[in-house]
Amino acid sequence: MVAASVYYLGTTILLFLIFVLIVFRTCRRKSKDRMEEPKYRMLDDDDLNGRK
Length: 52
Hints:
- The protein is mostly helical.
- It has one domain.
- It has two helices and no strands.
- The termini are far apart.
């Protein structure tokens, strides 16, 4: 019983730490600028041949 409780607690803490790492990497200024770049590139005007 105790081993199962420790296992579930450890798994919960591990998943929470992975979640915090993902949020931290996503919200950093450098990563945010890199992820936002394609959004603005889609809005750029292209000529008729599809080239810039």
